[in-house]
Design goal:
mainly alpha
Amino acid sequence: MIPGSLDDGEPLRLREQFSALRTQVRRYFWLWIACQTLKGIVTTTFIWVPMAYLYLAR
């Protein structure tokens, strides 16, 4: 038998799996937003601001 496969007569339970997926999405949505915000701040601070400064300082 393949690991993770269903036994004979075992129901698939798609509704429960979909509900669990929605719970995970809700849980990690704000963490993803925070990571993207932090990434944008770091990129702006260390890449775009120095490049703009060097360009405009000529």
